[in-house]
Amino acid sequence: MVSNHSCSSFHHSKAAVSRTSQRRLVRSQAQDQKAEGQSKVASAPALAYVVVYVNDVEKSVAFYEKAFGLKTRMTQGNVRTAWAEMETGSTTLAFTPQDQRETVLSGGVKAHKASEAAPNVLVSLTYDDVHSAYKHAVENGAKGMAEPEDKPWGMTAGYVKDIDGILVQIGSHVKGQ
Q: What pLDDT, on the 0 to 100 scale, is given for residue 37?
């Protein structure tokens, strides 16, 4: 008769051998991919920041606080010329000047005029009461582009432009998610 302790040890040993075999297989596959010139991402990435290049960081921070009710998480250096982050959940919304050093090193960004069509980025903020949030944003300097309406995919959304002409969606979470 085998004791429970012996069975438990056997199962743990078997699991350890299985994990060791799996690790060897993964290493072998990684070596094969490396030999073939392929690389594999070690883990799934997480979106950490959305960085918006603006004319004046300090004015953008004040605008987002007033129009959208966001709070400043941190600023670095002289706010007007450096960096600011807003409290927006797991992904940080950050502002930095259009002529920031790293931007210049990478070839720069095209300066955007508020009067032009929105650039190819959308900042999406979610609220429990989309209609009130939209009204508040417009009353506090956002340019209304489309009043909130129910979308076929199950959310309510309206659109405004910020002081730099960035399109901001004021929406709800998709119903059922």
A: 60
3-state DSSP helix/strand/coil % of the chain, to nearest 5 = 35, 25, 40
- The burial of 147, by beta-carbon neighbours within 10 Å (0-12 exposed, 13-18 middle, 19 or more buried), is given as middle
pLDDT at 17 over 80: no
| 176 inside domain | no
The half-sphere exposure of 44 on its side-chain side, counting CA atoms within 13 A, is: 1
Average pLDDT over residues 93-112: 74
Structural domain of residue 32, as residue ranges? 1-40
Q: Please measure the distance between the N-terminal and C-terminal CA atoms of the chain and give it in whole angstroms.
A: 53
Q: Which two tokens stand for residue 62?
A: 């004040």
Judge whether residue 109 has pLDDT over 80. Answer: no
Query: Is the pLDDT confidence value at 86 over 70?
Result: yes
102 in Cβ contact with 110 (< 8 Å): no
Does residue 71 share a domain with residue 14?
A: no
Interatomic CA distance for residues 169 and 146, integer angstroms: 9
